[in-house]
Amino acid sequence: MQDRRPTIEDVARVAGVSRATASRVINNGRGTSAEARSRVHQAVDRLGYRPNPAARMLALGRTDVIDLVAVGFEADSARFGTNPYLSRVVAGALAALAGTDTHLRVRLLAEGAAHRSIDEIARTTTQGAILVNVPPPLATRFHDRCERVVSLGATADRVPAVEARNAQGAHAAVTHLHDLGRRRIAAVHGPAGNTCAASRRVGHLDAIRATGLPDITGDGQFRREAGYRATARLIATRPDIDAVFAASDLMAAGAIQALTAAGRRVPDDVSVVGFDDSVIATAVNPPMTTVRLPVEEMAAAATRTLLDGGAAARWRLVFPVDLVVRASAAGAAPAGTT
Amino acid sequence: MQDRRPTIEDVARVAGVSRATASRVINNGRGTSAEARSRVHQAVDRLGYRPNPAARMLALGRTDVIDLVAVGFEADSARFGTNPYLSRVVAGALAALAGTDTHLRVRLLAEGAAHRSIDEIARTTTQGAILVNVPPPLATRFHDRCERVVSLGATADRVPAVEARNAQGAHAAVTHLHDLGRRRIAAVHGPAGNTCAASRRVGHLDAIRATGLPDITGDGQFRREAGYRATARLIATRPDIDAVFAASDLMAAGAIQALTAAGRRVPDDVSVVGFDDSVIATAVNPPMTTVRLPVEEMAAAATRTLLDGGAAARWRLVFPVDLVVRASAAGAAPAGTT
DNA sequence: CCTAGCTAAGAGAGCGCTCTCTCACCTACT
DNA sequence: AGTAGGTGAGAGAGCGCTCTCTTAGCTAGG
Asked: Chain D: nucleotides under 7 Å from a protein CB?
């Protein structure tokens, strides 16, 4: 394709000036004559010169990349595309980076081979890394090798993290269902190993205990299929459930499908509340009552922290969450309505 | 945070070897004694040395970044998080990059200020750029400045592109609805300026003409709200429509909500077919019949092309699309069923 | 015993760029 | 007329790394 990419040397030669002058012109530098400027610009156009970013970075001593490291979103690569969470993270990070000349590099690690990759990333990252869904041992390992790191969601103790009041959100969701008159509230939780899922469990249990409701719990991965299966199982065991609190919108979407398949109407027979307020929540029918996780803001905060030089070990930034009331949760419909 | 990041020079000094030897050891190089190896590794650990990637790239003459450039997904930054398409693109690109030491850099351009940014990106990209939703004039401009570029979806003629048989997909969708016995099929199209949307319009019109059906058409942005509004308007004008073909899953989700709000049942009264087969299609209730766009594969193909050195002007790679039959489209329910 | 042939490791030349230092030249003020 | 001050431009020193070239120090073979 190209013999050899033209360098600034070539530009200087063609323009009949020195390398320094060429550089000055190219970087909008002042202190150049109109004559020199036009000659250099012409040379640039003629040669199709584009500066080598690596050389530039090296000379400037500025290394301007933040890595977004996510684990396990792509057992098959399609899985990630299916995940409404990570795209919000990217959006938030990018928003924080706008106006900066720092770039965002995205890395996805297969759940299995993550150990090896994590070392390599820690070795090559510069401005720092944002960890998404990275399990505690791996996060610690990363932190050992590179301190410039912030986890999205709590992970290992030592690793700086931006987190949300997950427990509070779950509590609010269950309380909301209780306030609507629901008394047999099933919970469909996320994977046991996940720290966010764990917090949501805690909030749910607190609310259950505070209101004296029965504990009807299922769980699975944070995915639609898992939500569907867990809900189907729950209905089979406890056909009288009148509400479902799911630990993610995707699971809630699965729950709604399972309920429909079992002949229950949402929200008339069974109310459903999700968690995340992702695009799924607004797209389903009926629109979903859910707990809004400010993912974009959290990612932006993590990014800004990295931009500012990182955070100390054990640093935490905690975001509030809000219950967003839509149509999937309501009081029971009057009996006999079909 | 750090006085000065340690360099390989420091490592060499601490280890009591030359820079060359340190480099050899660090890069798993052969030709080093066990003695030297252990000393260097110790020094690396002690200093927390991490090689400067810019210097490395410069010395190796290898520049290993592919840019993913998307326009207009973030009028507000949250918009992008809401877009199920771009995350699939990222997934596909990343899948193609796995095993390579090329990285993916994601860039989002606000629709307004894109002109300036596009030049900067074209100037600094190395391995090349994947264009997503970049309008023809901008894409051409990019191509003028940097030939290493592939657009996802057709854009300007000259710009290499990976595209899908959008027209064929739309045709298949409409034909499917016709086969189910639907005769008043409304179409909710995407934005007029968008090339994909245009192709889908063509396919729809072809099918309409071929089957002699009436043309009932609305349009808007590729978003849920637009789908809702357009459908609501259509129902108001033509209360007798018995099917909706939407140009995206998100619009179809909006259509389903609008139909429900208008007292129509899906699929009994009105069948709905979407386009994309994004996560939305499986999450909604009932699960959506839709046209599967192999976004991940397309993005992977674009990435591989870039990895292989790019493509000639006007290059095209065309992917087939498939109708995925789920529950949102069916024959009319027997009259009188409630 | 001398030299060919090997391995380990140092010296040093870039990679492409930016930036400081320096100089030549010109204007303007005393 | 002499010097201060300003401006445009070249020379050259790095930035941190890798890699080739070269040398030192061995072992082995004639």
From this structure: 7-12, 14-20
- Token pair listed for B167: 């027209």
Pick A285's closest partner by Cβ from B106, B256, B338.
Answer: B256
B163-207 per-position pLDDT tens digit: 999 999 999 999 999 999 999 999 999 998 889 999 999 999 999
The span from the CA of A112 to the CA of B157, in Å, is 43
Q: How confident is the model at residue A74 (pLDDT cuts 50, 70, 90)?
A: low
- As separate numbers, helices (DSSP H) first and strands (DSSP E) second, chain B gives 14, 12
List the A47 CA – D19 C1' distance (angstroms).
29
* Phi, psi (rounded to 5 degrees) for B100: -80, 165
Q: How far apart are CA A329 and CA A289, in angstroms?
A: 6
Joined together, the tokens standing for residue A227 give: 């939500």
Closest CA to A286 of A333, A330, A331: A330
Residue A191's Cβ-count burial label (10 Å; 0-12, 13-18, 19+) is middle
Q: Which residues 65-84 on chain B approach chain A with CB closer than 8 angstroms?
A: 65, 74, 77-84
DSSP B267: T
What letter does residue A155 receive in the DSSP assignment? -
pTM for the structure as a whole = 0.90
